[in-house]
Amino acid sequence: MLADSLKRPGGAVLIAVVVLLAGLPCGVAQAGDFPTAEKVVVEKKKRKLHLVRDGVPFRSYDIALGTSPEGHKEQEGDSKTPEGTYLLDMRNPDSDFFLSIHISYPNTHDRHKAASNGVDPGGQIMIHGQPNIPTYSAGYYKSSDWTNGCIAVSNSAMIDIWLMTPDNTPIEILP
Asked: What is the DSSP letter of 32?
């Protein structure tokens, strides 16, 4: 089982994070000690993702978006990041990127609108870290919108988000 995890992209890094967290002494913060977000808010224009509890952001992270970030995602391949309210509904520790959490796009409204326009709404929109096998420099990923419509963060931010968002956490993506 451990050997299989090490063969997957990002598997060794995830195992290292788990081992690191498990080995912390009792006086040091552990995974269960992290605050839990009740909601995630993304401000596309400001390129920020906020973890929110009791209506107040308690962590904020810089983000990268799709290569055509303005406006709501309407169809597969438009490189836009959706806008609206969704859920963080599935996790993938074996993604092509450093961890990923699926966003429940497209919702019923998105599917109906796409159908009325005769297009596929697309899907597989995630919050994720950096590529496990980068094709550009680290500076490019840090300073550009480079995804196909996902929300990308640094790998360290992705660890925080992974640990502080339970399944089915609402996410509101604002213009």
From this structure: G
Strand partners, 41: 50, 172
What whole-number distance in Å separates Cα of residue 108 and Cα of residue 170?
16
The third-level CATH classification (topology) of the domain covering 37-174 is L,D-transpeptidase catalytic domain-like (2.40.440)
Name residue 124's amino acid: Q
Answer whether 121's CB lies under 8 Å from 114's CB: yes
Model confidence pLDDT, tens digit, residues 56-85: 999 999 999 999 989 899 889 999 999 999
pLDDT digits (tens, 9 = 90+) for 95-150: 999 999 999 999 999 999 999 999 999 999 999 999 999 999 999 999 999 999 99
Tell me which residue of 138, 66, 129 sits closest to 97, measured CA to CA.
129
Contacts of 135 (CB under 8 A, 6+ apart): none
Q: Which two tokens stand for residue 5?
A: 């995890």
**Structural domain boundaries of the chain?**
37-174
Q: At 120, list the tokens.
A: 């596929």
pTM: 0.81
Burial of 4 (C-beta count, 10 Å sphere; 0-12/13-18/19+): exposed
